[in-house]
Design brief:
This protein has 666 residues and is of the alpha+beta class. Helix content is 33%, strand content 19%. It has 4 domains: 188 residues; 84 residues; 233 residues, P-loop containing nucleotide triphosphate hydrolases (Rossmann fold), CATH 3.40.50.300; 83 residues, Arc Repressor Mutant, subunit A (Orthogonal Bundle), CATH 1.10.10. The strands form 5 sheets. Strands 15-14-16-17-13-18-19-20-21 form a 9-stranded mixed β-sheet. Strands 4, 5, 6, 7, 8 and 10 form a 6-stranded mixed β-sheet that branches. The protein starts with 22 loop residues before the first strand and ends with a strand.
Length: 666
């Protein structure tokens, strides 16, 4: 049988699944060291699926079938998939390598798929079937003697091809999803056996790639010292697996495990431990045990971080004795006059992007930040002035971790608008999302970038996509990512321009850990005002002028025609003039919160220098805000009231409260 590769728009799925908000997109992506590409899931907005599956964020970005199918076709993805969650009430069976060249399948599979919707997998060698009920999330891989078998009930995702099995087509099961029956349960019992509680997400691209913590041997010895080696076999094995992962399976980790285990009552022998050690293997889709688990176990056993005050002081005394008189080391104080002799700052784009280590460009969803980043990148790659500011020509690499499928179209639109040939432009794209928390992947990125020669700028779009699974509000995860950004700069000499998302409160700037802004040499915000106008704002410049603003608009450009004869378009960020510049400066939209800006816009409806009753203003402002979802508390009136109070307290602000009246100033 030939592999089946249907057009995405031709895919049909059972009617009961049409309106379930559990659909996403997927595409094949290669991974280093793996012969077969993985099927990587994306939400319909082009963002790779990450974080906790079934969380409010995840559910909000999953879609209905027709919306996902259209997005996949439009954006060039390989297909659509369904992400089962526990409350959906469906289980999907995935049989791998079960169809022979003649189209035959094992009888036990035939009995199951003849009563419900079933289709061929993308390869044509497997079968997917849908059932109502919960069979859990399990996997039994393909062996020499048996086909592979997985069940998905509350995690992962299942691809849909729409290539229904002939038997299901003949029996009219196109829209039938049958209940789980005894034959299916019997098959699960036979294939999964005692492992039926070992659930995991087989399509989590981070599973099997959990980052190492970089612990020293001394640190690992300290952690093991508080743990009892006579503990049960399961936690003892977990510690061995964690050491194996942290030390990449070398003898350092084995010796630590062997030495610690030898004090236990059930210590077998060094030879027996070696055999067990060699059996520790990571697997695709299987979550690895890391030293985080050992740290947690040690803390529960009373481990506390040592007080190193005396060690630090003693080392300082030794270093002081070793320093020659009046020498200057790495942290040695120097006269301030000497610093005035340093050469002036070098610029990529004068007054906008310095030749520095780290820049951050951020904005809310839909603000146009990716188009602005591309505009800056092309200006540098072509050596063309940006907003009439001198630009130094340089080589640029863009890590298109979010929306990689559309960057070619955006580049084509940019070239057409500015009338130049893309061939020969020194701008390169990495159409993948390396994990900046993984040392191995950072090393690969450094090697690949250096392989094409000297680089001046690396644009990373977006920071969230290269830090999968990280807690963006903590210094632990973000600090590791920033450390790897520093390594990337050191290895390539390039400035890293990180594209990031704005927080929910736009007045507080970039989303997540505050250390990101503190580390940046320059920070640029891309703003889309509520009236639709857009600005680029130089929010921070470590050694230069900030607060500069450049209005822009997104110009739509035709870049081709698709297979259906429809015009393909993209956008380009181009200079513009703000139509309401005076009003925006008066209202101070940039520095205020969303509700405060909303109140000021409502106030303008009453005319300039107005006097309005407080109740009337509150009523109108509340009515113009979106009502909460059913069952959720309505806090609009409280939010509007707080916004009015905050505005009235601003020095020389636009509002003043007097006896139940609000006075609005020009």
């Amino acid at each position: 049988m030939q592999p089946i590769t249907p057009s995405v728009r031709a895919v049909q799925v059972p009617q009961p699944l049409h309106e379930v908000q559990g659909w996403l997109l997927w595409r094949f992506e290669p991974f280093i060291g793996e012969a077969k590409p993985r099927k990587v899931p994306y939400w319909v907005d082009g963002t790779r699926r990450h974080g906790e599956q079934g969380s409010p964020m995840d559910r909000a970005r999953l879609s209905t079938f027709f919306a996902a199918r259209e997005a996949a076709a439009r954006m060039g993805y390989d297909g659509v998939g369904f992400a089962p969650l526990a409350d959906f009430g469906y289980t999907f069976l995935d049989f791998d390598n079960c169809v022979d060249p003649a189209g035959n399948m094992p009888a036990e599979i035939g009995g199951i798929v003849s009563r419900t919707y079933a289709e061929f997998s993308p390869s044509g060698k497997g079968i997917r079937a849908a059932l109502k009920g919960d069979l859990g999330n399990h996997k039994s891989p393909t062996t020499m003697d048996d086909y592979g078998f997985e069940t998905f009930s509350s995690s992962g995702f299942v691809t849909f091809t729409g290539n229904i099995l002939p038997v299901c087509d003949v029996l009219g099961h196109q829209d039938t999803i049958a209940d789980v029956d005894e034959a299916t349960r019997t098959l699960c019992d036979r294939r999964f056996g005692a492992r039926t509680n070992n659930t995991f997400d087989p399509d989590d691209f981070m599973a099997g790639r959990e980052p190492r913590l970089g612990l020293t041997v001394t640190k690992m010895q300290d952690l093991l010292a508080v743990l009892d080696p006579s503990m049960g076999r399961e936690p003892w094995l977990r510690i061995g697996f964690a050491l194996h992962h942290e030390t990449d399976g070398d003898d350092t980790g084995f010796e630590l495990w062997d030495e610690w285990s030898s004090d236990g009552d059930t210590y077998p022998s060094t030879e027996a431990l070696r055999h067990q050690w060699d059996s520790f293997k990571g697997g695709t889709g299987k979550q690895l045990t890391t030293m985080r688990s050992v740290i947690k176990m040690a803390k529960e056993a009373g481990y506390r971080e040592p007080d190193n005050r005396e060690v630090v002081l003693a080392k300082a005394e030794v270093l002081l004795a070793e320093l020659p008189s009046k020498s200057v080391g790495r942290f040695g104080p120097v006269p301030i006059y000497d610093l005035t002799l340093a050469p002036p700052m070098e610029w990529l784009i004068k007054g906008v992007l310095p030749k520095a280590e780290l820049g951050v460009l951020f904005g809310a969803s839909g603000s146009g930040k990716t188009f602005v980043a591309l505009d800056l990148a092309f200006s540098i790659a072509r050596g063309k002035a940006w907003r009439e500011r001198r630009t130094t020509r340089g080589r640029v690499v863009i890590i298109a971790a979010e929306g990689a499928g559309g960057i070619g179209k955006r580049g084509e639109a940019y070239a057409r608008y500015h009338d130049f040939d893309l061939r020969g432009v020194d701008l390169h794209v990495i159409p993948a999302a390396p994990n900046f928390l993984d040392n191995d992947e950072i090393s690969e990125v450094m090697a690949e970038i250096n392989n094409i020669g000297p680089i001046d700028v690396v644009v990373i779009d977006t920071f969230a996509q290269v830090t999968p699974g990280a807690n963006e509000n903590t210094s632990e995860d973000m600090g590791r990512a920033l450390a790897n950004l520093k390594l990337l700069h050191g290895a390539t000499g390039a400035m890293n321009l990180v594209v990031a998302h704005a927080g929910k409160d736009l007045s507080k700037g970039v989303r997540g850990w505050s250390g990101l802004k503190a580390a940046a040499d320059v920070q640029i915000e891309v703003v889309r005002h509520e009236n639709g106008e857009r600005e680029i704002i130089l929010e921070k410049m470590k050694d230069g002028e900030d607060g500069i603003r450049w209005p822009f608009r997104l110009e739509v450009v035709d870049v081709g025609i698709d297979n259906d004869g429809d015009i393909i378009t993209s956008c380009v960020a181009v200079p513009a003039e703000l139509q309401t510049k005076v009003e925006e400066e008066r209202l101070g939209l940039k520095r205020r919160g969303r509700v405060e800006n909303h109140v000021l816009e409502i106030m303008t409806l009453f005319g300039e220098q107005s006097i309005v009753g407080a109740v009337e203003l509150i009523d109108r402002a509340v009515a113009a805000l979106q009502a909460p979802e059913d069952g959720k508390r309505d806090t609009r009136r409280q939010s509007v009231t707080r916004a009015i109070q905050a505005l009235s307290k601003e020095k020389d602000g636009p509002l003043r409260l007097e006896g139940g009246k609000i006075i609005f100033y020009e």
